[in-house]
Amino acid sequence: MPAIALTGIDKRFGEVRANSNVNLTVASGSVHGIVGENGAGKSTLMSILYGFYEADRGTIHIHGNEVRIRSPKEAIAVGIGMVHQHFMLVDPLSVIDNVMLGAEGGALLSKGEQHIRAALAKLGHDYGLDIDPDAIVGELPVGLQQRVEILKALVRGADILILDEPTAVLTPDEAEQLFALLRTLASQGKTVILITHKLHEIMAVTDHVSVMRRGEMVATLETAQTSPAQLADQMVGRHVLLDVSKGPAKLGPVRLSVDHLVIKDSHASLRVKDVSFDIRAGEILGLAGVAGNGQKELLEALAGIITPTLGRILLEGEDLSLVAPTPAERRVHGLLHIPEDRQRMGLVSAFSAAESMILGYQTDAEFGTGPLLSSSAIEAHTTKEMDLYDIRPRDASLKTAKFSGGNQQKIVLAREIEHHPKVLIVGQPTRGVDVGAIEFIHKRLIALRDAGVAILLVSVELDEIMSLSDRIIVMCGGVITGERTPETTNDRDLGLLMAGVTERAG
Amino acid sequence: MSAPIELPKWADVSLVPILAVIVAFLIAGLVVLGIGESPVKATVLLIKGALGSGEGIGYTLYYATNFIFTGLAVAIAFHAGLFNIGGEGQATMGGLGAALVCLRLDFLPWYIVLPLAIMGAMAMGALWAFIPGYLQVKRGSHVVITTIMFNFLAATLVVYLLVNVIGKPGSMSPETRVFEASAHLPYLHEAFAFFGMTIPKSPLNLSFILALLASVFVWILVWHTRLGYAIRTVGHSPTAATYAGISIGRITMITMAMSGALAGLLAVNEILGVQGRLLLEFSSGYGFIGIAVALMGRAHPVGIILASILFGMLYQGGTELSFEMPRVTRDMIVAISGLVILFAGALDGLIRRPVAGVFARLLKKGA
Description:
Distance between the termini of chain A: 42 Å
Number of helices of chain A: 18
CATH architecture of the domain at 65-317 in chain B: Orthogonal Bundle
Strand content of chain B: under 5%
Largest sheet of chain B: none
CATH class of the largest domain in chain A: Alpha Beta
CATH topology of the domain at 65-317 in chain B: ABC transporter involved in vitamin B12 uptake, BtuC
CATH architecture of the largest domain in chain A: 3-Layer(aba) Sandwich
Radius of gyration of chain A: 25 Å
Strand content of chain A: 15-25%
Mean pLDDT of chain B: 90
Strand order of the largest sheet of chain A: 6-7-8-3-9-10
Largest interface: A-B, 34 and 22 residues
Structural class of chain B: mainly alpha
CATH superfamily of the largest domain in chain A: P-loop containing nucleotide triphosphate hydrolases
Number of domains of chain A: 3
Oligomer: heterodimer
Structural class of chain A: alpha/beta
Distance between the termini of chain B: 26 Å
Helix content of chain B: over 70%
Mean pLDDT of chain A: 88
């Protein structure tokens, strides 16, 4: 009997279908991986299982019994435990206090503490989960903090354990230990669900793997019968190539040079490791890769939003960190950016379409005089762009949030393209965009390239990369794992590079 | 997680606040009933006291002037996503700024002293809010904490100065000498008399006009300038602001300074308009009520003026009410104001959710 059987799970957030008709069966005593890109619906599905959300439709069976899970408390009651990506721990408290939190067993602590202490000792013995119960959690290394989270779930009687991106914060060594632990747990009859977008982890530790894409469960495979390349294909999705007609590139001089770029994030972990490439006028350079492998950081460094740790970015030979360190100055120099997160970065959802249409250009002379902005000038400009880019509804005063994803993206696209870029950095231009708009956006990008703009296209959609790019580079784990041209590569080859396998495939 | 509550705009800006006031009055009515008085009579007395006579209206608008200044101060900070609770301290420092100018220069004619004194009030208020803004940007200390602390600093600083430095020699109370007539902002009845018209006497002075001008200024600034655009972008989405090349730190400091300058203007009404000297605690809670005013007015100048008049009515009508109904004490009026603040601000969702529910049902029926 399967430990978990989800049938026909549907979940909508407004217009967005986060999960549509998802079926998932997880065998008891196994490690089951769930992979998918950011936004594919993995987290929503797990949140439904753990009671953060309730599904609009569908049923949940745990060990054969149909259950309704309306809160994490009810999830715990049916034996489901969750280890969150961001730990839910109280740093200044001891291990035992953290484990006991919410399970004190009365107003006085001594009895509950005795009980928990015994339970911890037993778990340490059964699974090799040794930990000093009186250590202060904040002083433990991250790997052990995660162990405390796992213990919290086990002490509460969990026999199904969900881990959400558990290795994101771990060193490779710690990750190995975690995997060994997961295997032990499974071999003793616990069921483990591992959510990740790192394919080698799936290969290393799981028995089965389910792939999600755009809210749907596209495949469930036996890990031993699959490969990282196949999983990458499944994750990214192999659609019919959209027919993009483009002539040969008329290459101009090098516009943008990235020279040994190294980027650390705010937690000082390396996101981009020594990346170098050039883009010439009149070419589209495609940057492929599974989301979360350093593309976002690279884009933001190019746009001037974050400062690279090492290396240089040259625009027509000039070092941008010297001549134009800020996003505003880079715009003036002709380096424009269509961010991958249009909701949070590219637009202000609470603004009207007209206001979003001048984001980044609010100081331009054409939108007002002196310190004043001219609403009529902005609205006129927006109406003109709306006609040009077929943005619907044609209402410049409508709130940005009320436009569909495709039309929101067209607002960003119109704004940036109409400001005459020399170099255009484009992140996920068609994510969450309907097919008609995709075609339109692709045509615009090709037209820009033919007009001599240097374009860096970052996308997790392989089709898009294949059909638009003149050259393709692939990133995995913060490094460029290969460079190809669309004529000399295929999905499988790129998929392997995306998974970090650098040998040339046929 | 519940779905975000979407209401038609008119309901959001008028229906919800009005219902909040009604609910507050109903509950206050229960309290009045509890002490054995008639709530209906009390309400009539309150409204009559506030609006029933020219003098009453004058007082109501005089109080409202203070609320407009502090309400605008809180609102402009809201737009940048900042919570300035330091209106009290900034107003106090504004009083100091105005007083320093007047004490030094009130031998000069009014057309020099008054503009300088107003600027002094704005400058000191701005300084007192700029420092917390600067500390948040450079040192990461949250403005909510620092502006509260700066309230205490302002209070103690002014006590010290009044007792030891600028106080009137030989006086028993900590206050400055009375300024010369050139440093007095005319009462509205004086101004009208100048044009040969008579209106009832009240403390209402030209600051009220200044408050209306400040409201227009804030409206233009927030919605029709490049700076206002940057402020709103920072308030709605810091990520988008960074992308747009707007310096969040710079906007934070500028906005705090402007917020403080607006709060400092309260001193123009109280010190230059009414008291004619600097004394202690003239800000008497207006800075805090400004938060409620801004919340109720949805951080829009028109809403703030309306909310200010409401609170002005509560202050003035409440005073009259406690004369007429001795059992309804001054403290009762504070309690009623408190209830309005509670329902308009803190318990906003309590009103909003049922209203949204009704609207959702109506829409469903319509569809």
